[in-house]
Amino acid sequence: MGTFGGKKLPVETARHLAGEKSMKEANNSGQELTGQVAVVTGSSQGIGAGIATKLAKHGAKVMVHGLEREQGEKTVAALRASGSEVELEIGDLKIEATCRKIIRRTIESFGRLDILVNNAAVVHRGNIENTSVALWDEIFATNLRAPFILCQEAVNQMKRQEDSCPAAAPSRGCIINIGSVNAYVGLTKLLGYSASKGGLMTFTKNLAQYLTQYRIRVNQINPGWVLTEGEDYVESVAEGRGPHWLEDAVKTRPFGRMLLPEDIARAALFFATNPMITGAVLDYEQLVSGALSEL
User: Known catalytic residue: 214?
Assistant: First the structure.
């Protein structure tokens, strides 16, 4: 049995985290993204760090982004130790200038931009009765406005750059938005978050249609319940479920374990390396969104 944040993990989750499951990639040294450059927002930890690590492992140069410098530097140090070429940008995505700076600094550092992963998000609690206008605006500023600004800046670069990277053809660029299964209805205590992710899903499809003229692809991943450092804190402390919440949570998962950042990262790699898919939304969850209860 493995550990996560100092806690024992249910056996199936531990096996997967340790790479003992058969879902390991057949070729762990694949370099499909050699020569390509990626930006992953919110990648100092959690799902974002998993995606940044996966893209770097497969040859991409990566701009890591986060809010906390100390955590960001730890992630960057680990990636550099494995031989990856990465840089770090710290900044609040609610600020327009920060969004534009991330893209521009990536171009300055690496000379091009092939992949943008809009992963950063805030998950504030609130329903219709207790969500303030200020909180609503904060959620949308990070979860929907920031991806819009980042995409605007990224597209400006992608559509102008030459197809000088063989691995990029026939696609000129790739945008991957990280949504949530809450986009469809969502938990009532996540009104603002759910609405922002629903908006992101429509944004993804509308943008994908428009950008076909430039051969820039746009897809979205809607993760379900994923075990991250942040989720562990929310469930054990903020939600008051205590240190053994994970054991109870796993009992509700049909396939015997929690989803992990590695799972979402593999889906991101699929979208990044498949040049013929755009406008797709992948619900990465163990339960079917919209299914009716049998009770």
Answer: no
